[in-house]
Amino acid sequence: xxxxxxxxxxxxxxxxxxxxxxxxxxxxxxxxxxxxxxxxxxxxxxxxxxxxxxxxxxxxxxxxxxxxxxxxxxxxxxxxxxxxxxxxxxxxxxxxxx
Length: 98
Prior knowledge:
Elements: E1 15-17, E2 20-22, H1 75-88
């Protein structure tokens, strides 16, 4: 989960995939807290895995959930993470392997 400022624009046209409208977002990568920009890194959203054919990390395309406002802190953050885990079907028994 990362927090970022956004710019909403109509310059990027939504895609229609299997009859469903999918909006595209862009996140710049940066160098973490020691680079030119600071804050959360887009890299934190991706898994650490490689495409089996090209060995390129799986960060070119993935789904995400965008929420307005600041991300919760303290107990609210843990509750939000549990809700995302529930929605994804992740339990102590399944781990991340679904």
